[in-house]
Amino acid sequence: MPEPTPDEPMRRAIVLVPGIQRVERFVRRDRLVDNLATVERHPLAAGGEVELAGEIGRRLLPGSLRGVAARPVETDVFEAYWGDMVDDPVETGPWGKLWSGFELVAYWVFSRGTWRAFALSRFITIGLLFSGLLLILWYVSIALLVASTLRGMQPPEVLALPVLAQLYEGFLWLAAGIESFAYWALLAFVLSAVNADGLAQIGRFTKDYLENRPDEDEVGLRDRLRCRVRSTLDAVLAEPYDEVVVAAHSLGSVIALDALADWPHEADWPRLRLVTLGSPVAVLACRSSWLARERQKLLDRPPVTWLDFHSNADWLCTSVIAGLGGTVPAGVQSFELPFDAGLLGRLSGSSHQDYYRNQRVLETLATPGLLPAAPQI
After folding, report:
1. Which residues pair with 11 in a beta bridge?
2. Residues 196, 257: one domain?
């Protein structure tokens, strides 16, 4: 690549890999662009759209700095969108709902891998205990809905067997007892307030992802998500950008890690940076052996520049290097952010979205020539 002239702008690209949320394409990209325009040390102004290989980004133009003669910088922000792959819950019969819910609770609550994550930090312990309790209460609410449905239906023929008939009657009796519990209405309100249905949907999608659950074409969910993100990364990295920053939030950080761990283009690494925000990688690596291997593979692949941001006020994540023994490469650093989040924000998970507007994160993303030491705010 020829040496740039002083007046030739430095070209940067930021590829956002968002977390699990069923929203329209570009919504989170535009949110990030608008917040980057608020950074004080590197004034940026939103420009027009830029298109390359079917990917549409938004350009951020540098503001003029009086008394500073510096090379101008243009930053293009893209989104590796995969929100359309988050399916709506499939409607099933009452027994299907009951079994599906039990399978979900068993995968997350009755798993040695999940309990091993308690050793990562006390905040993860709090988050996992609260999430596990919510899942169990959510399953109880599903069981009550199923019982209510069954009372209005003709009993199935299999109940001619005495053992099954007794189990059926016992289930309805137990459900009626829970419904008559004085505090159940309050618990149902709490489940609604903290969006337990949303938690269950995230838990089910993450389970399907970690298990690489196949679709109707027998293609695994993990494989499809990795290919979707890699196609965007490949389109951006094929362009002559001086620096490409992959900014991955929440479950998007897991997908980005999976895509980069076996990245085949060695020439891309000197200009490639990974920034993870609120990543559950360390927690999920306790539950998934393949994810633990992919994390180690990326850490062992020099030269990697990986900056991680997490917060103790975000009970859905911890440091990506938590639980690792041995030496961590010099280019990999994890920073704790002091979010000003109350108890409700932590319980509901709303603090998990605070990375998009945190000034230290935005300053890091806006800084040309991203270095292993993130700027202090």
Report:
1. 74
2. no
How far is residue 84's CA from residue 256's CA, in Å, rounded to a whole number?
A: 17
Domain that holds residue 202: 100-210
- Complete DSSP assignment for 100-169: HHHHHHHHHTS-HHHHHGGGT-HHHHHHHHHHHHHHHHHHHHHHHHHHHHHHTSPPPGGGGSHHHHHHHH
- 348 contacts: CB under 8 Å, gap ≥ 6: 193, 194, 195
The model's pLDDT over 129-184, given as tens digits with 9 standing for 90+, comes to 878 887 888 778 877 777 777 776 666 665 566 666 777 677 677 777 776 776 67
pTM: predicted TM-score of the whole model, two decimal places: 0.85
**Omega of the bond leading into 303 within 30 degrees of 0 (cis):** yes
- Residues 6 or more apart whose CB falls under 8 angstroms from that of 298 comprise 257, 260, 261, 304, 306
Residue with tokens 């929203």: 23
Q: Identify the CATH number of the domain in which residue 17 sits.
A: 3.40.50.1820
Report CA Rg, the chain.
Answer: 24
User: Cα separation of 232 and 203, whole Å?
Assistant: 26
User: Which of 192, 210, 228 is where one domain is finished?
Assistant: 210
Residue 337 and residue 245 share a domain: yes
- Whether residues 345 and 225 share a domain: the answer is yes
**Which of residues 180, 210, 240 is at a domain's end?**
210
Q: Identify whether residues 73 and 43 lie together within a single domain.
A: yes
- What beta strand segments (E) does 156-271 contain? 243-249
Q: What is the mean pLDDT of the chain?
A: 83
